[in-house]
Amino acid sequence: MRSLVHLYGFIKPYRGRAVTAMILLFFMVAADLVIPRLTQRVIDQGILAHNPRVVITTALGMVGASILSMVLALFNNYLSVSAAMGFGANLRGAIMRRVQSFSFGNLDNLQTGKLIVRSTSDVNMVQMMVMLSLRILTRAPIWALGAMVLLVFTSPRLALTVLVFIPMIAFLFWLFGRKAQTMFLRMQQRLDSLNNVLQENLAGIRVVKAFARTAHEILRFDQANQDLMDRTIQASQLMAVFIPFMLLLLNLAIVSAVWIGGRMAISGEMSVGHVVAAINYLTFTLFPLLLLGGMVGPLSAAEASASRILEVLEAEPEVRAAGSPKRPPHPRGRIVFEKASFGYQGNGAEPVLSEVSFTAEPGETIAILGATGSGKSTLIHLIPRFYDVTSGRITFDGLDLRTLDLHWLRSAIGMVLQETVLFSGTVADNIRYGRAEATDEEVRAAARAAQAEEFIAGLPKGYETVLGQRGVNLSGGQRQRIAIARALLVKPRILILDDSTSALDFETEIRLQDALDRLIAVSEKATTRFIVAQRISTVLLADKILLLDQGRIAGLGTHDQLLASNAMYGDIYRSQLGRPPKGGVEPRG
């Protein structure tokens, strides 16, 4: 139960409610344990003595004890639920904050589906156990211990009956608990798999339909669903066997107590009231153990879930903030790669990038070309430190990226990722995402530069049009232009466009490039641009073109320089645009 105990620290803000709930449990148990003693008095001093007054007054005392126990239970339930819900909210918040600190490498290992299950199903499982621990899990041992003490005082001989059965009950707890934890852990893993299949299917539903793979996806889901069902049935069957065994031992103990107590009452060693009270205390000793037996399943499931949550909370971000972070006093945007190499964790093949060296001067446009898998996106992901280089270094104005303030670095970079991601909300909210304080005019200016204003004006409510999840009610080109506007609005020192114009037509792309040139020309600060492109027409006028081949630099220079000296670049140019013109670069438009 180490994982569960480790997570109990998240209840600290609600510690007062939790402690009060546990104190109320002591008084509840005391009220419950008074009833067998009052039952003895009713029998011995009331019924057998033919004294109705004792029967009535004692019965009223029993009713009073029951009412007191009920009232205490109501307050205990309120405090327990309140503390447990607060615990769950704190835990979910901690998971969210931890995930936000992760680098891309962490997220590659902890997939989206797994993180969702840990933040929902696993947290709910642990939250339920916290609530039960403030009620049944704490009350049952106190109840059993108190009843055992009173049983010893009532009848030491009958108390020995309990001692015979307790080792057998403890062995059952150990045996079934050990098996149950493994089963519930596998069950949650199957839930991970099911959630991954479902998440992939919903995210790629258009691809599924386009390739007529509906039957295949249904089969994948059915297999994952069947695996989860099988594991759940196995865990439930284990608990279905455990509870009857516990009931058998409980009933055997009660039968033994009735037989021994009956013989003692017949021989005159004990009064009938004493026998009844002793059997009640025996039941009160064993019944909580039965309750605890019913908790073996939830407790094992909660321990399995807690270990999975700790896997997230204890995961160290692969990209760590500098101990004494620096910021360039007058940032200019000069980026230098110095023999930078990188390989994904667990990738047994060659490094994705090998000893890449080049310099991007402030205000320059660096175009990155290469075949699929050549490392283009990986290279630009190293600039905002989504990953850290495995050897070599990258500098920003002469300072190693690993020494810079990570928040400042990323705030100085405007980035449009290869996969356009928009959020639920208005068009203006999405453009303003990286700079919430931007004025409406600044939002419109960024949209104009990104060639988005025309289609935004045609939306039902213009900039206040609410977008669906991930911008589903926009075309691919429209989503890309809003993403570009979002990046431009932060007025970055470094602008990274990762194949972000692939959904735009040639004319719109030309207008976009011209608008970017004008925007940067009138800007008070230079903006260094990195453009990853598949179409060579996009990068003809770049200050430097970086040609990658299998993670290595295969060419570096201007269009004219590469066309004259680099065979690979010439092949790419001819395959896309035909024979190069005699005059060099083709004019735009």
Give a written overview of the molecule.
This protein has 589 residues and is an alpha/beta fold. The chain has a domain at 2-313: Up-down Bundle (ABC transporter transmembrane region fold). The chain is built from 20 helices and 12 strands. The strands form 3 sheets. The protein has a 6-stranded mixed sheet, with helices on both faces. Helix 2 (15-47) runs parallel beside helix 6 (136-154). It is elongated. Residues 581-589 have low confidence and may be disordered.
Quick structural overview:
This protein has 589 residues and is of the alpha/beta class.
Strand order of the largest sheet: 6-9-10-3-11-12
Rg, nearest Å: 35 Å
DSSP helix count?
Answer: 20
CATH architecture of the domain at 2-313: Up-down Bundle
Name the average pLDDT: 83
| Terminus-to-terminus distance | 69 Å
Shape: elongated
* The level-1 CATH class of the domain at 2-313: Mainly Alpha
Helix content: 55-70%
CATH superfamily of the domain at 2-313: ABC transporter type 1, transmembrane domain
For the report, how would you describe the main beta sheet?
6 strands, mixed
CATH fold descriptor of the domain at 2-313:
ABC transporter transmembrane region fold
Query: Strand-residue fraction?
Result: 5-15%
Count of strand segments: 12
Regions with pLDDT < 50 over 5+ consecutive residues? Answer: 581-589
